[in-house]
Amino acid sequence: MPDQQLALIIPSKQATFTVASRKIPKPGPGEVLVKLQATALNPFDAKIHRDGTFVDSYPAVLGTDGAGIVEEIGEGVTKFNPGERIFFHGAFDDNDLATFQQYCVVTTDFAAKVPRSLSLDQASTIACGIGTAAIGMYGTMNGIGLIPPWERGGWSKYKGWPILILGGAGSVGNYVIQLAKLSGFSPIITTSSLKHTERLKSLGANHVIDRYLPLPALKQAVMKITGSRIHMMYDCISTAETQEAAWSLLAPGGKLVVTQPSLISKDSHDSRQVVPVDGSPQSDENWETGKRLWAHLERWVEEGHIRPNNVELLSGGLRAIPDALERFNAGKVDGVKMVVRPQET
Ligand SMILES: NC(=O)c1ccc[n+]([C@@H]2O[C@H](COP(=O)([O-])OP(=O)(O)OC[C@H]3O[C@@H](n4cnc5c(N)ncnc54)[C@H](OP(=O)(O)O)[C@@H]3O)[C@@H](O)[C@H]2O)c1
């Protein structure tokens, strides 16, 4: 076991990424050390670097979505053994838990074994997307507090309730559609480029509406399906335009999850609710929801209830990440999850 590894480091706020040597961390109680075979990229990584927000301490290592092989077990861990393939949700605000490096420490509450049917590349695409989807839908602090499918009576609980999911083709959107299906929502309506229609229907969407329709036409298309405004919405994109569209279709008493800060101005008598999600399970507020989700993920993935994002594998290991993050800033990520293999650096 080496003592040092390669990591992609931001030396100081908004500075150029550099690949450098970093000490391999030690797992503490309830943690394992993983040799990272795959890490997936998120728009959030690009924003942290571009805007210098969310991370206070530098040098910083980013990356939250990982899959790899367990190398070492921390005190009290019985869930995993060395040599097992796991996927997990890391953290961007603790360098030892971040995934843009060759080895990282993993909180076992937010990790699961990778079923045989999945490659490690595919498994690495799940964490942030499904965490954000689940906390937004089922979290009581950073979400709208629906009864989750892992709780008694939660499976198919919302049968007959329509849901509108803006931006179904993105990573978060893919998982919101799949969780909406487990929760029984029907019909599941999503917006996307129409080229993704077949895939989104295979994940559980009943109707895919062209995301380029102007607002009046979008409203008309939704009303044609449901006959009235909708009580449950998840805006996975949350630009000013998508939030405006969602708000205009939200029924009195309805609930809307947004993935970016809310831009809705509502008066105090409005019974509708807009909730910005924080998709990281590592905060105290989200820990319990995250833990319960991860306790079910291995089985759900194995049984095909949850399918990974489509992988776009980038060559060059960690060195491919800086240019790839620019693609998020340019809006050039289209229905795929970019993945790199840190061991190929
Ligand atoms: N708050 C949190 O904790 C949290 C966590 C995760 C993500 N986020 C944020 O959530 C957003 C989505 O993240 P992601 O990982 O899902 O992104 P992503 O996978 O990169 O999303 C890419 C997709 O967005 C779709 N899209 C772009 N503009 C759209 C619009 N106006 N209407 C419908 N679809 C649109 C495109 O769909 P088409 O291909 O159909 O054109 C594209 O395929 C990002 O802003 C991210 O920073 C927040």
Automatic annotation (TrEMBL):
Gene3D superfamilies in the record: Medium-chain alcohol dehydrogenases, catalytic domain (3.90.180.10), NAD(P)-binding Rossmann-like Domain (3.40.50.720)
One example GO MF annotation: oxidoreductase activity, acting on NAD(P)H
Domain Enoyl reductase (ER): 13-340
Pfam families membership: ADH_N, ADH_zinc_N
CDD domains with a match to the protein in the record: enoyl_reductase_like
Name assigned to this protein: Chaperonin 10-like protein
Native source species: Suillus plorans
